[in-house]
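Regression report. Comparing outputs from two consecutive submissions.

Submission 1:
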Amino acid sequence: MGTAEVNGITIGYDDAGAGRPLVLVHGHPFDRSMWAPQVAALTGSGWRVITADLRGYGTTAVVEGSTPLPVFARDVAALLDHLGLDDVVLGGLSMGGQIVMECYRQFPSRIRALLLADTFPRADTPEARSHRRATAGRLEAEGMTGYAEQNLAKMIAPYNVEAMPAVADHVMTMMLGAPPAGAAAALRGRADRPDYRDLLTGVTVPTLIVVGRDDEFTPVADAEQMHALIPGSALAVIERAGHLPNLEQPVAFNNVLDTFLAGL
């Protein structure tokens, strides 16, 4: 575990293994521990895996108000600078995937391949923006408990809540541990994000798109759209999984990721 003083904040991160660098960006409202199965699997196969807590989450500093995706992306770039990494494989899930898209917009020359998991490129509709902002206010007023209880069976497939109690406990622990002000700031910033569909048509690096078969937040159709937009991309659908296939079906997720990485 390490810390980096960048962009006026302290970022908490893990840097494990040796070899080619892979940076994984977590989703909302989680922390870097969501990538634990991937870190364990990939550090033994020639990869240096870097996972960090985003601004406002985990052990990284909380900045209240609104955190736009370009700010998150600049934090990622600053962490790469701190670690002396010129180019990396960059992956993210859900909001993390949208941050990865913004990273590709800001510094494509530093990215040798992309992993986009359970995410989508469209900007929010006016209704979705209003809902995100209302949810942000709710988190600040009420804390994370109600939100976490309401969304557990959407974050992982409902059948996995009972079938995988350890996974469900991990997901609940991450959600309950998210600082309400940080999560709210991310929701407000995400509500104002741009549409990344045009950007994706110009992606020139190898790209893997992964989605859980039963993902309610970002269904398979969203992954298929990205697959159609990104030239030469690969698409993998993970069975018996919802929004967090990397935790719900880590063996299947890791096998798909390992095959992709081996081909780079």
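Submission 2:
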Amino acid sequence: MSAKTNVEVVIDGKVYTLSGYEGEDYLQKVAAYINNKIAEYNKLEDYKHIPSNMKAALIQLNIADDYFKARSQVEKLERDLEQKDKEIYDLKHDLISNQIKTESAEASVKELKAANQELLLNKTRLEATLEEALLDGKHPDDEKAASDCKDSEDK
């Protein structure tokens, strides 16, 4: 906790000593805010004719109004932030889920490519066998039947 600060400030033409644990700049800023509120009202013609105790109450009400509006805005922003955090969480969850699906799909594609490669090799062998059989003068159906029998035995 920082040391207590005492600062002399001028509010509505009068010197006050403010004390607090905030810095001097902050306490001067508070005094400037109050002076700005007083200056706002001093510009109004009707305000000049109001008794001084009512003037003080009017400024206090105005400052309380500013406070509650600011507090409401902070609460709204906190709710918005909470909603955005939830959306980010959901998006991260979706991203991870999609990454898992992508990895699974990539593995399936790899397996299918390997199976396709094997089928292409078998096709090439069968074509070579057929061509060889045709060149040797054998009937292709005899060769196919022999090949089918061999495949059945392998399984």
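Expected: both submissions complete independently.
Actual: both completed, but the second showed a warning that disappeared on reload.
Relevant detail on submission 2: The chain has a mean pLDDT of 90.
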